[in-house]
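can u pls check wat happens w/ zinc ion
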Amino acid sequence: MARKVIITVAPTGSITTREDTPYLPITPQEVAEETLRSYNAGASVVHLHARDPKTGGPTGALEIFRAYLDEIRARCPIITQITTGGGATGLGLGFEERFRPVEELRPDSASLNAGSMNFGRKVFPNPPEVIEQYARRMAELGVMPEFEIYDLSMIQNVDVWVRRAGLVPPPYQNSFVLGVLGGIPPTFKNLLALVEALPQGDTWQVIGIGRHEFTLGAMGILLGGNIRVGFEDNIYLKKGVLARSNAELVEKAARIIRELGFEVANVEEARRILPLLSKKGE
Ligand code: ZN
């Protein structure tokens, strides 16, 4: 039987603006409608950042995250993931504030950034004590951490601070993020190096930034991984052509998966494949 490949959609992120693309969803209703369209196109996980409905800018506001989750859960059974990056660069939130939506809302999963780095010209702080604190608390809450791996060194960080310390029962879900300035450059060789460095049994997806979304994504699918698409990472369907919806990016990922001889995982299948902590406790 053909392997099932999971598509995650990241519909807004914290950096993309309406000037970049007029199709960016911002309000809870817009984000939920985009999520539903993406779910119908084959996405089984949604990765969320919150936006202020008035300004369109990123916010860490708990109530916005709550509204996003409520609106999405009312529409479809997609697996939910919220960021703990605090807008990665711009918001200057404290570590407690970055975690508060996870604490209060308990999504299926939350991102856990696996090291400090330069993110463009900003510093993105994720020191060992915060990685430990987030990992420990996510394990207690039954929220699956998705380790965001921006460089080879971060696989080692997860191994030393989380895996060997026994903070979360393995295996783990990982995202390889390629193409952020300050992280690992987006090349085929680098993706292969990341895949080869990962411990056996872990699941992973590729997040290729910009035009690398589908090239590195396709390579990831061939190597046994999953793929994330969406306006957080890329706004173009192809060179010079804006995607009019996140769902168009999901549809393209689904076409690539099928053309390569694999199948798109539905939510039920994705729940079986991913090391969700709610499942481990059963
Ligand atoms: Zn994100």
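Residues 10, 13, 47, 49, 83, 85, 111, 232 surround zinc ion (CB under 6 Å).
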